[in-house]
Structure formats: C-alpha cells, structure tokens
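Data availability excerpt. The first of two example chains:
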Amino acid sequence: MQSWHVSHHRHRAGSVVGLIPLSGLFAKDTLYAEGSVMDMEQELLNDVIREYRQLMEAGDLPAALPLIRQAAHWGDLESQILAADLYMNTLQNPAQALEYTRLAALNGDTESMLNLGMMLRERREFDKAFYFIQKAAMAGCTRAYEPLAAMYMMGQGTPRDLQQAKYWNLQGLEADPENAGLQRQHRVLEKAGC
C-alpha cells in the first residue's frame, strides 16, 4: 500500500514526493547544489579575471580597473595585489592602495603584510604597523626583519627591546649580509651594548 501511495503522489505532486522518502538523497542534492554555486562563483571570478587581463593587455586600464576591484573584493589575492600596486604606483592613490594592500595582507600575502605595516608606520599608526610587520617577519618575509628590528629599537608599537632588535637584525644580516641598512643598524645595536 505504501508504494502505491508514493507512486500515486509522484504522479500528482511531481518531484516533491521524492523529498519525503528520500530525505538522505535530498541532503546530498543540497550539498551538490551548494558545490555547484561555489563552482559557478569561481567560474564567474575566472571570467572577470580573464576579461580584465585582456583589457590590461590592450592598455585599457580605465575599463579594467572596476573588474580588478571586483575580483579583489571577491577575495582573489592576485587581484588584490594588482589593485594595490596600481593604486600605489600608477594611479597615485594612497588611500586606495592601503585598502587593497590590507585585503591582500588579510588574505595571507606576506609581502602585503610588510607593505601594509610600512604604510601604517608612515601614518604613525605604530601598534597596527608593528602587528603586520611582525606577522610578515614571523612568516619568513626577510625584508621585514630590518623594520621590525627598528621598531623594537625605538619602541614603536611595542615596548623597547634591544634584545629583540638584535635578534631580528641578525636574522636580516643572515638573509642579506650585504644590506647597508642592516649593517648600520647592527653597528648602532653594538654601540648600545647588544
């Protein structure tokens, strides 16, 4: 009797009856549908990136820029870095450069962490600057060692700590022994007794 009942409803209600006895399958279909949405979003993002690359190759930055911004806000790291670079070096818009550098830093790009820290340091936002420069250094960004050591030396965004300054200075010298800034910094630390 149950199978007739299901069959009877199948004819009258169409696919709705499939939801009742096959709830386990419906759950899988839901996951599949969510996966399809994510696939569609990725496909759309890829289309936007492909389009802005073509526009950039054609030299049409004004048309490409809104697409770059869109992809950046959708979380594409490459687009975030590109937008930051364009706003900093080509369009000379530091506020927008800061925004996109922040997005890339929060997306895990260590060079962007350092760049954001340096921008914030210029703005005298030392606590935030220290956070991002330290995060970049801890992630292995060797260019972050010198400014991190300097911030420890001067107590910018952190209590003054000459031992930490020395540690990061030595890390920097190990990575880049010819760096004149690190060498000067090392001499200052030696004169301070470190």
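And the second chain:
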Amino acid sequence: MSVTSSRAFTSKYSNDEITVTCDPCRFSGKNSAALKYCKDCGGHFCMYCAKLHLKASPTKKHTLITLIEENETKKPTGKTRKTCQEHGAKLTKYCESHEVLCCNVCVLASHKECIKVTSLKEIADRNVVFRMCKDLESAIKRLQNKFEALHAEKQDYIKSVEQQTEALVINVNMYRKTIDGILNKLEREAIRRKDEFCKERTDTVNGQIKTCKTAITILDEAYKQVDTTLKESNADMFVNAKTVQNVVNKYSEVLSKIEPSEKEGLRFVPDLNIEKYLGGLEALGEVLVEKYSAVRKDNSPSIASSRRSTSENRKPNFTADINVKMKSDKKTCFITGATFLYDGRLVLADDTNKCVKLFGPDFKPVCSIITATSPRDVTTISHHEVAATLPAEKLIQMLRIGPKEIVKLRGLLLDIECYGITYHMPDLYVTSGWSAEREIQIINPDGELRKKIRLSKSIFRYPLYISIDPKAEVMYVSDYLNGVLVLDMTGKVIMQCKDADKGSYYKGVEVTVPGQVYACQWQDNGITRVHTDGRGLETVLSWDKMDRRKPLAIAYTSKTKRLVVSFCGEKRDLMSIYKFY
C-alpha cells in the first residue's frame, strides 16, 4: 500500500478530515504530518521518524502501517470514532476534571495535572453506560423534536413574511389610491372653480351678444322705416320719425349700459405647499416591524382610564361598498359574522350559502369553504387560524387560513347552540344566542369547558355577539333585547347600556381600540358607540330606512384602521367599509 503525501487523511466511514502529526516531531516542536502508525506502541511517525523507529533495537520488530491502511483495517463497529481526533491514537482514558475522552498522548500532553484520569475499563460500568445511553436517546429525541418544531416554525415565518409582504404592497397601493383620491378631489375643485368663472363670464357676454343682435335687427327695421317715411305725408312722416327716435333713444340707453369687455387672462396658480410637502417626503409611509407577544394583564384594569387614552373625536368615515358575493354562491349572501386576520385579510361567515369566505386586504375575493350547516360567527385565533360557530351542530369549527385556501381542522363539540364567538388568549368565549341556556361558555382550545357565565333573564335574554377589550379585561355582550352588557372577566355586570325609550334590537359588537366599542342597532338602522363612562349610547352612523340597510355584523382591523359592516334586508350582498382618521 502506497504512502500518501498529504498532511491529512479522510476516513472512509466519516466525512471528517483528521490531521495527524508525527509524535516525535511534535515533542521536539515541529509540525510534521504523520504517515505511519505503529500497531505495537500506537505511535504516529513521519517517514523520517518511522525509519528511525524501525532501526532502534527496542522497536525494530514493530509493525508500521500507513494511516490509510490503519483506517481500513480498523473498521468502526459503530458510528462513534474510537480514536483521538488530535493524535489518532486509541482512546483509553477519561478525564473527569475536564469531562473528555483521552488517548495516552493526551494524558501526557494536557492532563498531567488532572486529579481524576481513569481508565475506560474502570469507569465504564455496563449498567451505568446503558442508562446513560437511554438518557442520551431521550435527550436526542427531545432535541430533535425541538429542532423539527423550530424548523416548521421558521418555515411558517417565511410564509408569513411572504404573505405580509404581499399584504404590505397591497396596502401601499391602496394608500396610494387614497392619496390619488385626495389629489383628484383637489383637481376637481380647481376645475369647478374654472368652470364657475367661465360660466359666469360667458353667460353675461352671451346675454350681451343676444342684446346686440336684437338691437341690430330692430335698428335695421327702424332705418328702413325712416327711408320709407320720406314718401309719406308730413303728419305720417312726423309720427314715424318720433317712433324711430324713441327706438334710437332706447337702444342708445341699452348700449350705454353694456360695458366693454375687458381683456382677462385666465391662468392656473398652483398651491406650491402641496408640491413642497410631497417633495419633502421620502416615502408614502414607514415600514414598521410589529412584534406580537402575549397580552400583559394589568393588575388593576380600568375602563375609564383606557377610554381616556383614545381620541373622543374618532368617528368612522365612509370609504366604499364592497360586493361579498362569490361566483360559487347560489343564494343571496347573509353575512352573520366577520373578523380580520392580523395581515388585513377578511374572513366572513355566510349563513345562507353555508360557507366561510376569505377576502384579501384589498377586499377582493380569494376563496371559500363549505360547512355542513350555516356558520353564524367567526373569530381570529392566530395568524393562520380562525374559529367559526355552527349552531345547528352545536360545534365550533377550527379552520386554517392559507394564502389561497381554507382547510378544516378539528371541531369542538358543545352542549349549547353556540352563536357569537371571540378569542381572548388562551380561551374561546361563546354565547348561547337564541337557545334557552342564556349563558356564556369559556372553552379552551382543546374543547374543554373552563367556565359558564349565567345571568338572570332580565340581563341575559338573548346574548348574541361578544367582544373583549384585552387591555381593560372587560367583556361586551350584545343582547338582542337588553342592549349592550359590560361584564368583567368573572361575569360580574359592570353596566348595561340600552336606549330605554326605543325598541331597539342589538346585534354585532366590536372593540376597535381599548375603550372604544361599537354596536349594531338593527331596528334603528344605525351603529352606536358604547360610552363606558355612563353616557350610554351615541349614534355615530345611520342609514335612511328607505335604503333598507339593517346593520348586522361588524369587524375592525387596527392594521388599516378600517371598520366593516354587514347588513340584512335588501343590501345583504354588500358590506360597507369605514375608516378612522
């Protein structure tokens, strides 16, 4: 077998490259590659030292092989290397001080001062090693599972970044359209002022032109009359002359009242402040990284304090109507539930078409999934998971939301006809709706009942929709007849907001920002703000009853500060979008 001239060799049974140095050269301060291995004394030698080793009397009968031959003849029986990576010698010792395996060379070179350097035969008790191997297997499996979970998490992160990037581009385009809309409005106003000026001037001049034409015609007739008067009698001539004189006097007066047209230059003077402001901007907006973390509970939540932290003048402004009917729909839509995902996409529960729908951040339809029975409400659990209530089955259907698909996950079976639903980490809060139970059930993600909140009939008649203020730790429940109920997280009633002088019916309820709550008043065709400081309800949106829009479900996204409202009546295929400025 030929001798390799490389300073390193590669094992057939490992991808690791092992550099072996000559033992005598290393002890003398040199760094020569070892090419030979002594099977008798376990030493490594360069070609020169190998010859000296065979010439010496005590070692002349030793057997030397090349390192490659050593590697081939000593085939490993397991996956673990049994030779020292630094010196290539057999591992024979264990240093308890440093917790490392050593060869004889390691002991002499690096572990002379160590107190506990034990032979492997002495320390390797089979029972102990067996338990150690079992513990290692468990530790490896746990570590492997963690890496697999981390791998899946990182893949989800990449997908989330891609989805959020697409959503961000859509939001930039939508904001650009908003800016374009403002500029178009300013342009229309400038054109309107131009048209108003031109109309005023042209109407005046056109009237003067008409007067001039009339005067020319009448004066032409008067001229002809004077010409023919010369042939008549003196008396007739005098009468005609006086008549024509009156005409001349009249139009002389008219002419004096018509002012000469001044030469006017019409030009556009731009508002340079707009150009100056826009030119000073570097971008349409900032790209911020929001880190999502568990909601931190305050020790002493206060509704009033959270309300004071928001603007009292925030009111929703109409943006547009969107059509929520998809090509697969066979009936008129009836959107009874809505929720926004964190990336701005919209998920809807369509009662009549028995499906859950997904719309993009631009409110364009993406996909839908059929449910066995009619869904009633829907809530967001995570970036990619929502939950929908199916009252007829007494079931909460968990759904995974992908980029372009919705996938059914597990179903949580309840003992009530679940209606409204919301998520407050880590539990689901479900109302009983029209059923006789009149309660709120708190369910964990595995479907286990954590708690039931039951109140008297005067409070809970038909609890329909529910929303939670995560900062104030307060529940808002819309009862069809009893108004909007404010409860703490234990179920204690804090207050009841209801228009006592109106026969209103209450449907969807939503917390937009901490302390600001909006509810649908179905009978009054309006959206009311729920004031938690005792002022009661304030109507902020209303529709003419002739428009036949009865607000039903409501949802808000803090990402774009948009509020969407669904309707029953004749506008069931439409949802209205409002924005807070």
